[in-house]
């Protein structure tokens, strides 16, 4: 399974980044991550049919097209999806790389809610884009802080690692 991983956090030492890195450690196969911070703000004028997309958009679309499955890992901001991540998804709407592709949505939060609002919104958006959300591969990870090691920037909590392993297996099966 060739995986494209998207992180909704641009923060250094991000807990989302720790979850994403641990998931990729557990993944047995090729994986790429996309630099979504390099994307311009989505503008349909830049997405006109026949026009060459901006280079960062072309790179994202190439990576998404080459992937068998997509792993989205994100925090929640103000009960919503981080703008940078939503922007990246907007660039993939018209080009269609998400269509029929198995997708895992994982959110993590320092709070008990596990980023449930952002998780639901991401799933709604990706389903609207005709992505194939794999429910068994989706996780809402609560109280993420003490479950990660800031030095290794990895998840250390065994239960969470077990959940990540199962999520990747579900994605692989899908
Ligand atoms: C502007 C802002 C809004 C936030 N809103 C929420 C929220 O609605 N729900 C939530 O669970 N966490 C919220 N948080 C806390 C983030 O989940 C927390 O900062 C988390 O560590 C960010 O992920 P990261 O470590 O990957 O950067 C918010 C944080 C910021 C900075």
Written overview of the protein:
This protein has 174 residues and is α/β, with parallel strands linked by helices. It has one domain: Rossmann fold (3-Layer(aba) Sandwich), CATH 3.40.50.360. Helix content is 36%, strand content 17%. It contains five helices and eight strands, in the order βαβαβαβαββββα. Strands 1, 2, 3, 4, 5 and 6 form a six-stranded parallel β-sheet that branches. It has a two-stranded antiparallel ribbon with strand order 7-8. Helix 4 links the parallel strand 4 and strand 5. Helix 1 (15-26) crosses helix 5. Flavin mononucleotide is lined by residues 9, 11, 14-16, 75-79, 109-111, 113, 115. This is NAD(P)H-dependent oxidoreductase.
Report a brief summary of the structure:
One of its GO terms (molecular function) is oxidoreductase activity. The protein is of the alpha/beta class and 174 residues long.
Q: What are its keywords?
A:
alpha/beta, Rossmann fold, 6-stranded parallel beta sheet, two-stranded antiparallel sheet, 8 strands, 36% helix, FMN binding, NAD(P)H-dep_reductase, Flavoprotein-like_sf
Topology, please?
Layout: E1 3-7, H1 15-26, E2 31-33, H2 55-66, E3 69-74, H3 83-91, E4 102-108, H4 116-128, E5 132-133, E6 139-141, E7 148-149, E8 154-155, H5 158-173
Parallel strand pairs: 1-2, 1-3, 3-4, 4-5, 4-6
Antiparallel strand pairs: 7-8
Bound molecules: flavin mononucleotide (FMN).
Flavin mononucleotide (FMN) is lined by residues 9, 11, 14-16, 75-79, 109-111, 113, 115.
């Amino acid at each position: 399974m060739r995986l494209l991983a998207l992180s909704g956090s641009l923060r250094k030492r991000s807990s989302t980044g720790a979850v994403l890195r641990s998931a990729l450690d557990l993944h047995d196969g090729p994986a790429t991550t996309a630099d979504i911070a390099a994307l311009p703000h989505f503008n349909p004028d830049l997405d006109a049919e026949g026009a060459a997309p901006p280079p960062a958009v072309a790179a994202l679309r190439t990576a998404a097209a080459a992937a068998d499955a997509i792993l989205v890992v994100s925090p929640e901001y103000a009960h919503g999806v981080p703008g940078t991540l939503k922007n990246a998804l907007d660039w993939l709407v018209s080009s269609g790389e998400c269509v029929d592709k198995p997708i895992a949505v994982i959110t993590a939060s320092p709070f008990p809610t596990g980023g449930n609002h952002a998780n639901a919104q991401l799933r709604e958006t990706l389903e609207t884009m005709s992505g194939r959300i794999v429910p068994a591969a989706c996780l809402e990870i609560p109280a993420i802080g003490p479950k990660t090691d800031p030095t290794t920037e990895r998840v250390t909590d065994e239960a969470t690692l077990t959940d990540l392993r199962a999520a990747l297996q579900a994605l692989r099966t899908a």
